Amino acid sequence: MHRPMDEPVDAAMPSGTRPHPSETVSHWPTALPPGGDIPDPARVDPAVLGALLDRHGWRRRGGSAGRYSRWTPPGTAAPSGGGTSLLVPDTTAFPDSEDLLAEALTALARSAAPSARDVLVSLAVPSDEIRWWRDVPDGALGAAGAAGAAGAASWSGAEQLRAAARQILLAGALAVRGRTGFHGARHRRRALASLDGILVGPAPGGRDLTAYLPVEPGRAVSVRLYHALHATREAIDFQRATGGMEAFDGAVEAGVSRELTQAVIALVRGSEGTRISLAWAPAAGTPEGCPARPEPVEFSPGDLPALRLAGARYVEDEPAVNVRITGAVVRMRRSGPRGAGIVRLRVLAGAEVPHVRLELDEEAYRIAGHAHLVGLPIRVEGRLESRDGFRRLTRASQVVPVQVDEAERDRLMKSLQENLDFFEEACTGE
């Protein structure tokens, strides 16, 4: 990696995430696994198990006071009906507590109730839960109307829900890294990396979706989304009541941004209403400044005009940023053998974006081409423009090659060899 004397190296931040015990997690939240190991009963807190069962609709139906409680799945009329019934010890102080926990966990693993798997996931990886729900009219399903009446959702509707949920999580991860009205391409790589390890589990029917954010490191995203979503709801209410947009300006500090408003728009569009709820991991407790049982946040089609106005306002108000960027040339183009040209840089330091595009005059373009030919990045000063998502650098000046260590130079030279014809043509204009 390069080591310029006058600016720090922006080292890559490890995501710090861990996969679910039963599988390796992909870059974007992975669906819940169909199976997996049962959590170790010796490490399961009965109070946490009871809290999770209660959260997911299981019914407590008596037991021996102070020793154990009996739980049945949602919709079960009575424990004598032949279905799943769990005996959960109240404490681990009794000799048979671990045996009862082992039997309860085994019964959960074998249960046909969808919530049983959710409970096991939360036990295996202590996680905050974020649930999205969309009220989609049956008539909107078209040919799938009959299925919709039975509780199923169309393929496109399920994909829309998943995509919107992903955008909301990304907006929360971006807000953890900076409070601004428009993030654009800034911080995006790190924000996406911080979502590694999140699990998602669609409920039957495809109209709702749950994400499980591991407490480490997902708690920061959960907390930021709690504040940002409620601030968004309050700002919309203020705008609809008064016509003023001032509340959206103050909401930026809570984590509201164009990215979040666009994500909520994507969630609401085509529905009759949406709801987002959040529940904290019982094993980790309630984060400071948040209620123990957060109220769900609801949005409706009537909120869309305010959200669109807010998104446009955030883009317009976000200023350009003066930067000094060090980057490797990855593309060069100009219309003739002489004159100015367009250069694309892979950013190594100086800005939280992966690539920038800039126009250089003839002399600076020649310097950039020669630097790449000998395996060196360049350093350039300019203004990172917000209107293009912070992907374009204007007023470029002070273009100079930057020394790098041997490993980085070898890697850059390898890239050159793979694209030699392209760069010879770009630099000579032939």
Write the layout of secondary structure elements.
Elements: E1 30-31, H1 46-55, E2 59-64, E3 68-72, E4 86-89, H2 97-110, H3 114-124, E5 127-135, H4 145-149, H5 155-177, H6 188-193, E6 199-202, E7 208-214, H7 215-242, H8 246-251, H9 258-268, E8 273-279, E9 297-299, H10 304-317, E10 321-333, E11 341-349, E12 355-360, H11 362-373, E13 378-385, E14 392-401, H12 406-418, H13 420-428
Summarize the structure.
With 430 residues, the chain is α+β, with helices and mostly antiparallel strands. The chain has helices at 46-55, 97-110, 114-124, 145-149, 155-177, 188-193, 215-242, 246-251, 258-268, 304-317, 362-373, 406-418, 420-428; strands spanning 30-31, 59-64, 68-72, 86-89, 127-135, 199-202, 208-214, 273-279, 297-299, 321-333, 341-349, 355-360, 378-385, 392-401.
Please provide a written account of the structure.
Strand 2 and strand 3 (68-72) form a beta hairpin. The protein has a six-stranded mixed sheet, sandwiched between helices. A five-stranded mixed β-barrel has the order 10-11-12-14-13. The two termini are 32 Å apart. The chain is built from 13 helices and 14 strands. By secondary structure, it is of the alpha+beta class. It has helices spanning 46-55, 97-110, 114-124, 145-149, 155-177, 188-193, 215-242, 246-251, 258-268, 304-317, 362-373, 406-418, 420-428; strands spanning 30-31, 59-64, 68-72, 86-89, 127-135, 199-202, 208-214, 273-279, 297-299, 321-333, 341-349, 355-360, 378-385, 392-401.
